[in-house]
Amino acid sequence: QVQLVESGGGLVQAGGSLRLSCAASGHTFSIYAMGWFRQAPGKEREFVAAITWSGDSAARYADSLKGRFTISRDNAQNTVYLQMDSLKPEDTAVYYCAADRGTYYLTVYSADYWGQGTQVTVSS
């Protein structure tokens, strides 16, 4: 089993920045990739970004977020980060960390482990 704990959410004004953290514990050796998803009120959970857990730190992003969000990892700390810049009110959502044991192309349906989520609110 893998446990994921997110932190770093909060209230920020439009144009500001936040960095989310996701600390992994337990059987982290089983992780192939980590990702971030978000869910706004009344909407489905959607993919934000993903990164491989070892090796070359290959990363991918939702097309609409490229250039504003950056995913990174620190294996020594068993932590994945999501740096969010130039935030917009439409970025308001609960942000979830996820881990997948088998694919870099993790989805809402394929991810094996989930964190509890952290609220990000962007005011206009």
Model regions low in confidence, pLDDT < 50 over at least 5 residues: none
User: Major sheet: size, sense and barrel closure?
Assistant: 7 strands, mixed
Which structural category do the helix and sheet elements fall into? mainly beta
Strand segment tally: 11
If you compute it from the alpha carbons, what radius of gyration comes out, rounded to the nearest whole angstrom?
13 Å
What proportion of the residues is helical, as a percent range? Answer: under 10%
**Total helical elements:** 0
Order of helices and strands: EEEEEEEEEEE
Mean pLDDT over the full residue set: 95
How far the N terminus sits from the C terminus, by CA atoms, comes to 40 Å
Secondary structure layout plus pairing:
Layout: E1 2-7, E2 10-13, E3 18-26, E4 33-39, E5 46-52, E6 59-61, E7 69-74, E8 79-84, E9 93-100, E10 113-114, E11 118-123
Parallel strand pairs: 2-11
Antiparallel strand pairs: 1-3, 3-8, 4-5, 4-9, 5-6, 7-8, 9-10, 9-11
